C-alpha cells in the first residue's frame, strides 16, 4: 500500500484557503492586486488531512509564482525551545537565498540568534550567565520580532510569500507571541500566513485555545476547519491506496471505523491490504503493526526515534541507537521505504505524529529510561547537537537528575535571554522540583534562593505574580534551619516586591523590613538590593518620609559597588517621592530617571518611571500627555518581551482607561483585544472589564460576561470596581432596583475588605448606583417610597463619608471632583423623583450644571454626555425647553460620535414625538398616549412629571386635553374608555 498523494474530498477547503490567503482570486473579486497580510488558521483533528491540504496549497502557490516557507512546531515535551519554526524558515532561506538573508541580518543582526547553528549547546560559551544579565538580554525580543517581519518583507519584494507554520498546537509561547505580532503587523509586500493545529488537542486549558479565539478577532484572519471526510471521499481514498481493491466487507469496515479521518483510512487500508484479512480493533495496535514488518535494525531505530519526539537529527539518532553507521543507514532506508519515517535533509520524522506517540507508548519503562539516557549522553558529550532544554528533558526522563537540574537552570536563562519569561518560569520551576527530588545526588552546586528568586521573577514578568508569591511563601516556609544566612533575606525582599502588586492581607513593608533586618552586615549587592526594594515598597505605600532615607542609602551603596541597574532603580524610586512639591519637580525628576534607566539598560526602572509619569499627568487631567507616557511604557515592555510585567501591563490598562475617558472607544477595543491567548488570567480580566464598558456603552448585552468576572474581584480591585459598574448598569437597564443595591453592596464589601472601607472609587460607585435607580423611583408605590428614600440617603452618605475622610494634603484631581459633583446631582435628582425632601429647582439645575462643568474639565466624553442628558431632562421639567434642547443636542452629538446607542435612545425618549400633521384633531399624540397609560396606572400628575421629566403643570395640560379628546368626565372614566378602545393594556 502506498500513501495517496492526491487531495481527496478537500477541493472546497483548498479553494477557500487559497482565496482567503490571496493565492487564488475570489470569483466575486475584480482582477487586481491582492491585499497583503492575510492569515488563515487551519484546524482539524489529528490525521484528518491538514498536511495533505497544505501540500496541495504549496503546489498551487508555487505554480502561481509564490515563495513558500514552511516551519514546524515539534512535540519536544518540556523542552519548550522558543521560535523553533522560525529557525527552520531562516535556515531554509539561508540555503536558498543566502544573499537575501545576509542583507537583512546586516540591518537586523538579532536575526542571527535564530540561525539553527547558533541554537545548540556551547554556542554561547564564554558568556556570563548571571541573573543580572536576564533583563538586558530580554531587550532583543522586540528587535527579533521586527527582524523576522523585515525578513519576510524582504523576501516578498522578490515574490509573494506564503509562510506555513504547521502543528501550532505544539508551539511554545514565544512562537505564539511572534505569530501574534506578524498577524497584526502589515507588510509592504504580499505575505500570507497559514498556521495549522490539531483541534482535538485543544483541551480546555490548552494555551492555544484562547489564542485562536483572540487571533480570530484580528482583521484579515480567517479560519478554515477540516471536518471528517464524507463516506464517498473515504471510498475514493481507499481506491487510491489499494489499487487492487478490497472486498465490500473490508471496505465498509474501513468507512465505518475511520470516521472520515484520512490517516485512519490509510492505516486501516494498510492493515487490510497486508497478509491475511486481520483488522485490529484498536488503532494504536494497528499503528504498531507497521513496526512488525520492519527488520531488527529499522525497528530499533524507530523506537529510538520515538523517544526524541516528532523529529530527530541523523547524528542524534545514530548516537542514541548504539548501532554502527552501516546498520543505521540500512535501517533508516527500510523505515523510510515502509512509510514509517520520512527523511528531510539531515532529520527524520514520523509520517504521522500518532504513529510516533503509539511507538513511544509501547516502550517498556526501562527501555524509555535507557533511550533518554543515551540521548542525554550524546548531547552532553557533543556527539549530537541540541539545546539545554532538550538535554534537560532527556536527562530528567533518564533519571539523571543532576544533569537535568543544571540543564534546566541553563534553559531558563536561555529562554530569558530571548525574551521568553513564560518558558523561563517553566524551566526554573522544573529545576526546583529536581532540586527537591530525594533521588538526586548532591553534586550539582545550585543556590536554592537564587533559583527561587529567578523563578519568581520569571513568573512575575510573565504576568503571574500570584503564583510567584505562592512559590516564595512555600520556599520560605520550607527553608532548612542550616540554610545560608543570605537565603531568607533574599527570598523576603523578592516576596515583599511581589506582595506589593497583588491583593493581599499581608503588609509588604513589614516583609521588606524583615529582609533588611536579616541581611548580614557589610557592603554587599544583597544589602543594596534589599534597601532599594524597601524604599520602593515604602514609596508605593505612600510612606514617603520613611522611603527617602532608605532610598538614598540604597543609591549610595549601589554606586559604590558599581551596580548601575540597581542604582537606576533607586533613582526612579527617589524621583517618584517628590510628591510634596510642585508637580513639575516630580516630572522633571522622573524624566531624568527614565533617561538614566535607558542608558544603563535598567528596563524595569524605565518602565516604572514611564508609568509614574503617565499617572502624574493622568491625576492632573492632562490626558493626552498621560497617554503618550503610558503608550511608551507599553510599547517598551512589549519590545523587550515583557508585555504582562508590572508597570508594562499596568500602562496598557491605564492607557485603555484614558482612551475610554477621551472617547476613543475604537482604540480601547484595540488595546483590550488581547491576541496573546496565553495572557495571564488577571490581566486578561482587567482588560476585559474596560472592553465591556465600551461594548455596554454601545448597547451590547454583556451581563453573562460580567458575571464571569466575579471570581476576579478579590484578586484584583481594579476588576471589582469596573465590573461592579457594569453590573449596576445591567441591573438598571433591567429595571431591577434591588439588583442595583445588591451589586453596590457586594462591591463595597469586597473592596472594603481587600483595601479599606472608604476607598475613593466608592464615590463613583455610589453615584452610578443612584443614576441606575433613577428610572425606577417614580414608578414606586407610595408605601414603598420611605424605604427607598432611606436607600438614596445611604448611598449619598457613603460617598460623602469618603470625601470627609480624604487626606487634605492629597491632590484631588479633575476625575475625583467630577464624580463628587455627580454624586450630589444624582442625590438631588433622586429626592426630586421620589417627591420627598425635593430640592429647589435652582439647586437641582445648579448641581447638574456643576456636574457638566466638572466632567467637561475631566474630559470624560461619555459621562459628560450622560450628564448633559440628565441636565436636559431637568431643564425640560422646570420649563426651560430652549436650554434643554441645547444640552440634549450636545449630548446627542457626543453619543453619535461614540456609537452610544443606549444614550441616544434615552435622548429620543426625553425629546418625545410630535403628532403627525395628518392626524385627526381628536387623535392622541404620542406624548398624550404615554401619559394616558400612566393615568390608567393611577399615577398622579406629580408622579407622571417626575417619570417623564416634565413639569406638573405640563402634565395637567396634557391630561385636560386627553379628557377632552376621549369625552371623559374624569381620570377614572378616561382610563376605562382607553381600555375599551385598546389604547392601553
Please describe the topology of this protein.
Blueprint: H1 11-21, E1 38-44, H2 50-63, E2 67-72, H3 84-96, H4 98-107, H5 134-137, H6 140-158, E3 161-166, H7 173-184, E4 191-198, H8 207-215, E5 221-226, H9 231-241, H10 248-258, H11 262-273, H12 283-292, H13 296-308, E6 311-313, H14 314-321, H15 325-337, E7 341-344, E8 347-350, H16 353-362, H17 365-381, H18 388-397, H19 401-417, H20 421-436, H21 448-461, H22 465-478, H23 487-499, H24 508-518, H25 525-540, H26 544-560, H27 564-576, H28 583-600, H29 603-619, H30 623-639, H31 648-662, H32 665-672, H33 681-697, H34 703-708, H35 717-733, H36 737-754, H37 761-773, H38 785-805, H39 814-834, H40 841-858, H41 861-877, H42 881-898, H43 901-911, H44 926-936, H45 941-948, H46 952-966, H47 971-980
Parallel strand pairs: 1-4, 1-5, 2-3, 3-4
Antiparallel strand pairs: 6-8, 7-8
Helix pairs in contact: 1-2, 3-4, 4-6, 7-8, 9-10, 9-11, 10-11, 11-12, 12-16, 13-14, 13-15, 13-16, 14-17, 17-18, 18-19, 19-20, 20-21, 21-22, 21-23, 22-23, 23-24, 23-25, 24-25, 25-26, 25-27, 26-27, 27-28, 27-29, 28-29, 29-30, 29-31, 30-31, 31-32, 31-33, 32-33, 33-35, 35-36, 35-37, 36-37, 37-38, ...
